[in-house]
Predict the structure.
Amino acid sequence: MVKKVSKLPFRGTPDQAAQLEAVIAEHKSDPSQLMAVMQKAQAIYGYLPYEVQVMIADGMEIPLEKVYGVSTFYAQFALSPAGKYAISVCLGTACYVRGAQAVFDHLQELLGIGPGECTEDGLFSLEACRCIGACGLAPVMMINSEVYGNLTPEKLEGILAKYRD
Amino acid sequence: MAISEAVKTVNLKINGMDVTVPAGSTILEAARSIGLEIPTLCYLKEINEIGACRICVVEVKGARSLVTACVFPVAEGMEVFTNTEKVRRSRKLTLELILSTHDKNCLSCVRSGTCELQQLCKEFGVDDPDYYKGENIRYEFDDSMAHMVRDNNKCILCRRCVAACDNQCISVIGANARGFDTHISSPFDRDLDSVSCISCGQCIVNCPTGAIVEKDETAKVIAAINDPSKFVVVHTAPSIRVTLGEAFGMKIGTNVQGKMVAALRRLGFNKVFDTDFGADLTIMEEANELVERVKNGGVLPMITSCSPGWVKYCEHYYPDLLPHLSSCKSPQQMQGAVLKSWYAQKMGIDPKDMFVVGIMPCTAKKFENKRDHQHAVDGLPDVDVSLTTRELARMIESAGIFFRDLPDEDYDNPLGEATGAAVIFGATGGVMEAALRTAVETITGEQLPNVDFTQVRGTEGVKEAEYEVGGLQVKVAVASGTKNAKILMDKVRAGEGGYTFIEIMGCPGGCVNGGGQPIQHAVVRNFHDLRTLRAQTLYEADRSLPLRKSHESPAIKMIYSEFLGQPGSHKAHELLHTEYTPRPKYN
């Protein structure tokens, strides 16, 4: 699956930039530390948007394309931020046969975003995950650490409303 | 230790034949030494040795599986088989799998006939190209640049373009995403025109298929020729005469100047001129600018500006050093500017009705035409269309002209007259040598006893030389390929080197190896030095010409006496000089 690049405006702070600069300064001389720097950058910003990758590329003196190539190859790197409320819908076997796909599709409609994306207000992000070990409640989803089970598309609007207030 | 290692050899058997090669050789090289060509797709000697495509697989006795000959080192006593049934089956399977995601519109693909994939499919008898037909991703074309089109539907992910781009130290393309979704693109999958691509076209000449091609502008030229109100003038860059023949199956390095001129006449151009005239003119202006800078304490070192790929590189990557660039336009643009002014006046032609076509070794020339400050006469472009050598070859072919059977014809005058100094512009070091011939005689006022400045010749990436000119020590440097340009530019930025004059060409080896030159398969590129073979014919042409210094050309003397006055005159500045624009690295 090709990762979605967030279209949300970059909201990095000077404090975050200072943190990243310190990380880069530490590893600058060693290009093999690129992934370590990217991991730390993601810990600072939550994801690796264009602006952050440019900072890494310039700081490490590595072409931007090499940084981007790594960020699109490894599943651990995100190109879109997590929302304040990160929704993961389980598409594992048990959930899937109990109708998780319809739940997932309806969430995309309600939020107006695709998998791997974040809503413009930064409130919700959406992704699919594999089994979370709650098959008895299938289909299930998690919003941050809260688990919702026995879902139907009809129940979703009510659940989201709680977070919108 | 070092000495014994240097002479160490390895004995092995390939297809039952005894072979002795230097230790460290690959199976591919060992096979080559006994005249066996192992097919390759992803392999580019020294720049893309990744063993990824698996077309070069061979059997090695005792090995668990087939091995990739392009990267597998030979060992003492090894027994290799390059053409067994198992090997052929594997290669055919690989081709069938590549074809499963390849857009097979081969009938009209511009690379039909020069496509390495097509040739291998023929050689290995791939009779059902849809054998593994399945899911396909449809990629959009990227035609955002002035000079090229990328069609990832024909990409086989060999990564040769990525290696070529990395070898230029540009690295604006790479393999992105993963698995089935892997595709070659720019950072954040932006269009190529929003990254700092320099338009050199090295990715194009290294692509095995039609996934990257020049933007074809032959239709515009044909339309102009067919328009009775247009006076269509063509001029050919120095290197085209030694490369065009390759597109018609002729030996690498054949000088086809006469046939090329004949072909252009048969295509219907009103006048056929030589960009070498523009090159001589460039030398007049550039040598004058150099002398002025030295005398008046101008910015030094001065750096040549003939190569639009190099100029764009400097604008993106060294914008702070732009004052070092000579303000001279490239020969193509100078030729266009004087065609639409001096020549148009002489002939009584309205420059609006003149259509100027440059035949160039270069894809960046297509970009150069669209630059600002390249419209000297009434806001008209100096050159209307630049065609690559390949596009010209296609025009000749589709017009039914039997190129190899053509008689030799001469250029039209006066813009077809040129010196040996201009011919060598096509090779790295040529502009430097040509400029030295004129600058030295200008400064000393004496005839050079020997016009050969051999220290600046050859395909080495960076060359340096020191000359004493009229009591002055002059240190010069020459670089080709932007990887080597970077080495010099970092020195200049640091205030090191002590250079007076630098020549830089964007492509490795200069224009003879430009991104617009005829396609040669990697199996040829890997084992023949195209740059040297093509360049030596240019140096031969230089040697054979009666005049070898730009300032001795009668046509050059005529244009200055009739029209321009002196080199560096106000008129010369209006027509023949330009400006540069700092460009961002990311935009």
